């Protein structure tokens, strides 16, 4: 008997140790950083979504400066356009269902509004490859701290694909955050952040109490090893007593009663409810612009020692105006031809510097391509950003190809966006 008691005590200590270990892992929270998108494969960032005309603003339209302070409860707005790349990777599911979102280190902001092409993007919607969408995301600052915020589109079965981000410095106190809303029935909710929290807490405590009672009821008896010895001795009938059965029946009846009673009270308190909407929104892409400037890649290399992407391609100008290349954009990096004032003017003063490589874009043939002409253009995009953003690892991909957007400007202040796609070969010799 003493041996059984000793084994029972050891089992109890082991069980409680496991419980406390589990609780410890639940309450431990590590600090989240930024730039998790760098862990995504290069083909995900170069051949899926291309973001352009992205702007970060205050609620009143003022430009938001990288790292600027934002008080709790203040709004933060992201706008721009996104191109679903026409040469979508074959190893990824097509964007048959997408959802406009925001990428942040946890729920530090509240997503207040999302818009695609001027329509509310509350639900998921299909997207069309090779087409552009105008987006707008309105967030409300919730948790103080430095947070890196991106626009993001979740693609079904293909993960979240993020655009360029910006640092926000949220100040104030979390306790001051409120999110007032007005329901369809006219009810004024002072703070949606804690709405119904008391009921959630009470129900959680109730079921945790029931679970703990049930566990402790059996913990008071010999546990794993003693019970195993009794089963081995063919005395298992003594493990469950008549009192145990009565308690189980009483507990089961009580749970059924509480569930039925709770459902009745909830229905009376909330007579009008709308289920979560599982429908799909149909949002048409922006009108398809005529492909006035066509490109055809002839060669592309990545010079590893120099961290340089070199591309030669033919440009055919089918427009009625002369055009000149001003920008090479890929994986949120914007290589700007700094000798071209029109391209420089396209970069807003508050655009995050980390996405504008300092060396810019070197266009070997800085020429205007006249209507109807086809010219061979060679470019060099040299910067450590290829390594910092971990984009050079595309040389390890079984499908070593790249994707980018080329921004052309006409002599009459028009702009043309063209896709650039082709295989790329790594090289160690200049």
TrEMBL record:
Keyword Transmembrane helix: yes
Keywords: Membrane, Monooxygenase, Oxidoreductase, Transmembrane, Transmembrane helix
Segments passing through the bilayer: 12-30, 203-220, 247-266
Name of one Pfam family that matches: Monooxygenase_B
MF terms (GO), sorted A to Z: monooxygenase activity
UniProt feature coiled coil, ranges: none
Thylakoid listed as a keyword: no
Xref: NCBIfam families: AmoB_BACT (NF041640), CH4_NH3mon_ox_B (TIGR03079)
Name of the protein described by the UniProt record: Methane monooxygenase protein B1
Organism listed in the record: Methylococcaceae bacterium ET-SHO
């Amino acid at each position: 008997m003493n041996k059984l008691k000793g084994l029972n005590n050891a089992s109890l200590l082991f069980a409680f140790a496991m419980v406390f270990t589990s609780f410890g892992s639940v309450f431990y929270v590590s600090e989240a950083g930024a730039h998790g998108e760098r862990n995504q494969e290069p083909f995900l960032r170069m051949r899926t979504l291309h973001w352009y005309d992205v702007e970060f603003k205050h609620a009143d339209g003022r430009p938001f400066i990288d790292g600027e302070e934002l008080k709790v409860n203040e709004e933060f707005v992201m706008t721009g356009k996104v191109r679903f790349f026409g040469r979508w990777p074959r190893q990824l599911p097509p964007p048959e269902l997408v959802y406009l979102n925001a990428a942040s280190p946890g729920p530090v902001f509240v997503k207040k509004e999302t818009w695609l092409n001027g329509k509310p993007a509350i639900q998921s919607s299909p997207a069309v490859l090779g087409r552009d969408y105008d987006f707008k995301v309105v967030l409300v600052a919730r948790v103080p701290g430095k947070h890196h915020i991106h626009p993001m589109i979740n693609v079904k079965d293909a993960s979240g694909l993020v655009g360029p981000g910006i640092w926000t410095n949220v100040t104030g106190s979390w306790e001051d955050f409120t999110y007032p809303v007005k329901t369809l029935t006219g009810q004024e909710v002072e703070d949606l952040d804690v709405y119904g929290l008391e009921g959630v807490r009470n129900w959680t405590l109730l079921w945790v109490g029931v679970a703990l009672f049930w566990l402790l009821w059996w913990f008071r008896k010999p546990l794993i090893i003693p019970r195993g010895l009794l089963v081995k001795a063919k005395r298992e009938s003594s493990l469950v007593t008549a009192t145990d059965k009565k308690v189980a029946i009483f507990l089961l009846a009580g749970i059924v009663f509480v569930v039925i009673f709770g459902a009745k009270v909830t229905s009376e308190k909330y007579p009008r409810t709308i289920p979560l909407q599982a429908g799909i929104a149909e949002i048409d892409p922006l009108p398809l612009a005529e492909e006035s400037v066509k490109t055809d890649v002839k060669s592309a290399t990545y010079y590893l020692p120099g961290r340089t992407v070199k591309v030669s391609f033919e440009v055919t100008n089918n427009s009625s105006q002369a055009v000149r290349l001003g920008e090479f954009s890929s994986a949120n990096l914007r290589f700007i031809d700094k000798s071209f004032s029109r391209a420089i003017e396209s970069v807003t003063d508050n655009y995050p510097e980390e996405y504008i490589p300092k060396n810019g874009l070197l266009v070997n043939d800085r020429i205007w391509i006249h209507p109807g002409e086809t010219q061979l253009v060679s470019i060099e995009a040299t910067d450590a950003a290829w390594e910092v953003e971990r984009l050079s690892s595309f040389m390890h991909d079984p499908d070593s190809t790249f994707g980018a957007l080329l921004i052309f400007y006409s002599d009459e202040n028009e702009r043309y966006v063209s896709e650039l796609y082709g295989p790329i070969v790594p090289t160690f010799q200049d």
